[in-house]
Amino acid sequence: MIKIVTIIGARPQIIKAAALSRAIKNNFSDKIKEVIVHTGQHYDDNMSQVFFDELGIPSPDYNLGVGSGKHGAQTAKMIEGIEEILIKENPDYLVVYGDTNSTLAGAIAASKIHIPIAHIEAGLRSFNKAMPEEINRICCDHCSTMLFSPTLTGYNNLINEGFNPENKKTFTADNPGIYHCGDVMYDNSLFFGSTDNRQRTTDIFQKDDYILCTIHRNNNTDEPKRLNAIVRALIKLSEEKDIIIPLHPRTKKLLNVNLDSATYDTFINNSRIHITEPVSFLEMISLEKNASLVLTDSGGVQKEAYFFKKPCIIMRSETEWKEIVEVGAAIIADADEERIIEAYHHFKDNDAIEFPEIFGDGRAAEFICNELISNI
Ligand code: UD1
Ligand code: UDP
């Protein structure tokens, strides 16, 4: 029996963790013991607890209750808490997901006390170091022992940074193993996506012809110029279609701070723009499946749009998921009003989009479990 300590903290990590926990429960319960540590980075019920209730993830064994804060203070509190737990639990691996401050904190705490790190979603790069996530993922990858990349692009990024694909087991931090293994988020979308989960009773949630939009990337929420341009584009697009926006708390708090007052009023009083609280994962994938187009700056939502064969407009200047742009299923429009509208019209006029399989076979979590076991 091996022991892993899994670090989660932000919404997408909790969702990703469901895939590994499910694989452990179904196929590896006699081989892997998982201890779950929630840093408390996300804490509202609709950003955290809802996913435990809905996705069958075991309750966290520890919750550090770190909450929100500046990058340094937040990450430091996490490192301190995670270190104590790692010393007590002495696991065979620390498992971290993605690129948040919780990921970075786990990687720093574990690497200093020589606990091997398994990084799920390794190798992704935006090549934009102004993003906090880019710093987090580079640091985490370079401390890791086993690096599981969801895409070939991610795998090749690691090779370009000096990781050797010829390394042989036993992998260590100085002899790391890299994998191209598919995406645990795809595992989840296949597993949970087979039913219609529109639990809401309001009319808008029952519609089949709307734009689904999410906005939370820090430069889009914090820079008034960008937020105003995005919202002006949404107001224009609402002349074409209804728009559903499950709003991240970060964005909600900044709308009336960073939007011009006339734009703010038009936005929130628009009968075709439906702003809601964050929704559960089952509701979210149902909204994705029934949307005609997805407009987002989220990494996870970009991919889920692809999984459910929906065109996607990316409100960022680049993406780590460049394959979906290369095949023509997504367009990078940045926070640029005109480019967003142009992208919308492109997809309106060209609906024959191909969605080749890029993200694995839906069994990435099982693959990862097998590799963790066989490296001991
Ligand atoms: C974090 C991640 C980002 C990820 C996103 C997923 C970092 C640096 N960023 O960004 O990579 O895409 O999570 O959603 O780790 N807040 C609440 N309630 C909550 C959580 C947050 O009100 O439950 C508000 C607080 O005002 C907080 C702000 O949202 O200050 C930002 O939260 P934080 O976790 O720092 O960053 P995110 O923008 O959520
Ligand atoms: N998501 C959700 N409810 C919402 C918005 C998003 O369950 O109201 C899910 C979404 O389906 C995806 C994940 O959260 O699985 C993406 O997380 P987020 O956009 O917060 O972060 P990112 O992926 O950009 O790091």
Entry keywords:
binds uridine-5'-diphosphate; binds uridine-diphosphate-N-acetylglucosamine; 7-stranded parallel beta sheet; globular; about 15% strand; alpha/beta; about 45% helix; about 375 residues; 6-stranded parallel beta sheet
Please, could you describe this protein's structure?
- α15 (322-326) links the parallel β12 (312-314) and β13 (330-332).
- The protein starts with a strand and ends with a helix.
- The protein has helices spanning 11-27, 49-55, 71-89, 101-112, 132-141, 152-160, 184-192, 203-206, 218-222, 224-237, 249-258, 261-268, 281-290, 299-307, 322-326, 337-349, 364-374, and strands at 2-8, 32-38, 62-63, 93-97, 117-120, 146-149, 177-180, 210-214, 242-246, 273-276, 293-296, 312-314, 330-332.
- It has 17 helices and 13 strands.
- With 376 residues, it is an alpha/beta fold.
- The strands form 2 sheets. It has a 7-stranded parallel sheet, sandwiched between helices. A 6-stranded parallel sheet has the order 10-9-8-11-12-13, sandwiched between helices.
- The model has no long low-confidence stretch (mean pLDDT 96).
- The site of uridine-5'-diphosphate (UDP) has 16 residues, from α1, α13 and α14.
